[in-house]
Predict the 3D structure of the following.
Amino acid sequence: MAKRVGIITSGGDAPGMNAALRAVTRRGIALGYEMIGINRGFKGLLDGAFINLTIRSVSGIINTGGTILHTGRCAQTKTAAGMNRAVKAVKELSLEGLIIIGGDGSLAAGNTLSKKGIKIINIPASIDNDIYGTDETIGYDTALNTAVEAIDKIRDTATSHDRIFVVEIMGREHGFLTADVALAAGCEFIAVPEIKVDINRIASELKKGKEKGKTSEIIAFAEGCGSSYEFGEKIEKLTKLEVRVSNLGYIQRGGRPTARTRILASQFGHFAMNLFHRGKKNVLVGITNGELSVTSIEDAVKHKKKFNDSTVKVLKNLSV
Amino acid sequence: MAKRVGIITSGGDAPGMNAALRAVTRRGIALGYEMIGINRGFKGLLDGAFINLTIRSVSGIINTGGTILHTGRCAQTKTAAGMNRAVKAVKELSLEGLIIIGGDGSLAAGNTLSKKGIKIINIPASIDNDIYGTDETIGYDTALNTAVEAIDKIRDTATSHDRIFVVEIMGREHGFLTADVALAAGCEFIAVPEIKVDINRIASELKKGKEKGKTSEIIAFAEGCGSSYEFGEKIEKLTKLEVRVSNLGYIQRGGRPTARTRILASQFGHFAMNLFHRGKKNVLVGITNGELSVTSIEDAVKHKKKFNDSTVKVLKNLSV
Amino acid sequence: MAKRVGIITSGGDAPGMNAALRAVTRRGIALGYEMIGINRGFKGLLDGAFINLTIRSVSGIINTGGTILHTGRCAQTKTAAGMNRAVKAVKELSLEGLIIIGGDGSLAAGNTLSKKGIKIINIPASIDNDIYGTDETIGYDTALNTAVEAIDKIRDTATSHDRIFVVEIMGREHGFLTADVALAAGCEFIAVPEIKVDINRIASELKKGKEKGKTSEIIAFAEGCGSSYEFGEKIEKLTKLEVRVSNLGYIQRGGRPTARTRILASQFGHFAMNLFHRGKKNVLVGITNGELSVTSIEDAVKHKKKFNDSTVKVLKNLSV
Amino acid sequence: MAKRVGIITSGGDAPGMNAALRAVTRRGIALGYEMIGINRGFKGLLDGAFINLTIRSVSGIINTGGTILHTGRCAQTKTAAGMNRAVKAVKELSLEGLIIIGGDGSLAAGNTLSKKGIKIINIPASIDNDIYGTDETIGYDTALNTAVEAIDKIRDTATSHDRIFVVEIMGREHGFLTADVALAAGCEFIAVPEIKVDINRIASELKKGKEKGKTSEIIAFAEGCGSSYEFGEKIEKLTKLEVRVSNLGYIQRGGRPTARTRILASQFGHFAMNLFHRGKKNVLVGITNGELSVTSIEDAVKHKKKFNDSTVKVLKNLSV
């Protein structure tokens, strides 16, 4: 009888999760495994909710957003009792191991389970790109393009009305997405959690820009910097200029994955099953300096990905 | 010497204003006029800010959002003194008449100016589609598609997380956009200012839907129905289900015009100059039952466009 | 026992067929029918290939291209023997009637079947917009936008290289799509089967345009006007200018339906089942002058939709 | 008086050239240079056609396709006489050096000029991604997404009609683009110039796929593999299955640059001017293993970029 491997998508959804599911499933079956898809994240694992994945059940999903397995944040993954039940569930399903597709919460859960003896491979999927051990996560390039296209639209209005806009971008703890969005959208200013925001300097430069004849100015504002609406009001008070605020919100999570996201997801999924088959365990797959890479889950959990402020510098030099 | 005609874009920007500008300008020049573009709406008229428009100065703009003339809401258009100054400005610029591209504010200004003896043709441009005298305004089809594509993305997350979403759509006084968006995006519920919202019924149906196994439910919520965030909180309390709120915001105003918006804008602009040339004045151009139409500005100002609730009925019948 | 109604998608696929399927199915079930989806067009009917459609089996398809039932052109629909077998198949499946979603071939098949006593409602779906009895077909607005966006991209290259482009657009017998595409994309010239193409005039104007300093010129060329490649070569010979040819090809058929296509498809499907339920038969649903309309299939088959050359006139006036 | 630096876009246009122009111009001005934009590639250099670039003249172009300077392939760059005239032109314009944005032709021209004593920095821009010395060229990610989105649309029709499609993708000598497109679009087969195409194997697998019940099969076919139409006909003969051919053509060159293309272009342009300012010359900027890199033009011209067949392997393993 074929050995069984479980696949789970967990935490916030990210575009490309389905492309990764397809790759893991098809590679797994080719390598002789029976592939079991767990429904609704770790909650489904605890509930015993799963389906058998076949070559055909992952057809036509490479270009779809979300995850066909559904996902969820599961409070029980943070308790010892919950994790013990998860271990039991893995054994009841006779799973040889678990491929977990998700962000930092999934990594933490993978770490706990691996210490309890379950063979784990983590695949990084998150629109925040905040996982140590990979230069890029599945979904990041898609969210980046979604946000940039949204700001392109806002730019039309900003220019037509000679207005200042504050645009809020996802990222509770990190400014990776905001910095890349700002550079690609040609934003004039940026606020990220990693760098102290000097609102007085921004206000003073906005006033100078107006005097120089700039017709629109857009401030890319990361979610983690506080309330974008309060920030906009303060800017308005400081500059006496008209300011509008737009929170891009949930559109950043969904949508068809970009080509790059699909390629990354396909390669990660294929690589993950190859590693599993070769007996590798308790690692996170990733891409580092342009090459597929492997990091121990323990290391990935322990370290925080470094924010590269060179993007912010280039932005400052070009947004003049 | 050629007679001069002024063109002005006024009020909130809408995609397709540039396509209309191009059509008015090129048709005007072909008919022998000198075409004067007023900058920044009526404020620019009062300030004497204008440019000469040539065949080439409107090249390459048929597919761009915003307005190359810039626009603005101008408080002075609402005072007698302001309007008198506008009349004076029209005369100082030796303008034979004024083509005004904009929404209901522009129509009101056009009405006032026409009564003061200025020859006016109004071209309806507004993402709200709320102008009496035309079945469709320039920009409407574009905003409709932008909002629908945004909800398609949100649907991915809603389905993956089995969640309820409240999505706020532009429309302070009208639900035209919200109703069409909801039908096209397959939203399960709708809240528009024209119809009393029964939150208890919605909550009760949401609970029933959950029991039937619906994986996601989206409520299309028009700006004019109050705070979408408060609405979402109430739904959460009533249903004990997880609810998320996303305000589509300013992305609905900008972006490349759709084919339909460009065609409408080109036809309106071409038609407006033909009418002007034939001595027609003080009218709004439009499209009514599939044909180009003409309504007196006075009539257009007086009447309120009727909300067609058949869309809401079809939506209710299909969102099961 | 519930009465059974068959649904079939037939001929070339068009975006929005799925949205129509969803509407027909859900409205049909609400009215008490059992809805039977025939696979692969009339071929599937002859083969007895079908599925039961439920409320849930049409979930999540409102925004997808193609048709979940699959489609095909079936040679047997053109023979008496084939059509007699189709009648037999309808009876074997105990179908009360047939809702046919498709283009002119589907209409002809519907006509034949209706004369053999089958209750038929035709829903017009075709990217060509060439069906008499409706101002717009399902899929048309989507194909229009796809082609226009493609030409926007080609314009970038045409302008950067100061080149002439011939762009071939679908439409074997009609220029509806080409004319609207040309107007929306700001094309400089147009070739459609309905109007004699004067290649010498085009060549001469291209040369004049070059002298006036036009940086790019695009000729929208309908499939039905012959070989776009030969046309391009002739233009090159006549003008001694560099010409490139691009055939947009099959991308025009697929893709996510636009908002307008989805709304039209939803309304047509809903309306078709309401008509069927009220005993109406052997009609084509449509939209005429902005209102839902009904035409007898016989009339629709007999007449040819008139090409409106006003679009071509506006184009000529604006592309200067 | 400020030192002058020339900027030139040359060869086939690529999305992101404008973003690079913006970065070079703004960084150059900040570093104290007068920036001269040469029109229409090397032809413009020989003709003395140029404009002064200011901070504002590159506003609003970060998100546009094509190149505002226009471009062209210039036969004279391949003759000694032509190159000598180019050197003379550089001196007449008092240019300190030349920043050349383009593909392999631009690189060759840069190499020749550098040997004649002109200070050159090359910035790689090409949708083919075929430049040695950089893992990615400006425009590549955009063309990749354009082609993948096009195939997504074709997939709708392929699936609805259970058909085989051959899709031709740009790349006269290389299969980089085709391989990445195929992986991202989930194509079933691939034909690239770097790998011998076994048409009999493809035909035999297509027949097997049909028997297994695959509903659609797409063959990604690089331009450099010959005529896609002849290939499609052969497949049809060998398989007796219906085959359609679609050549994506010029849409692959144009369009709004993706976020990644804009970021790459901004970083390359910024980096190029920094290098120039530090006295570096006769180099190609690039990105290698995730880091900005520098390669001597001479080396870049001499070497051929290696085709990575791991993409093809992953594709084969996943397209089952």
Q: What stands out?
A: Chain B is about 45% helix and 20% strand. The mean pLDDT of chain B is 96. The CA atoms of residues 119 and 304 of chain B lie 24 Å apart. Chain B has two domains: 4-139+257-302, 141-253.
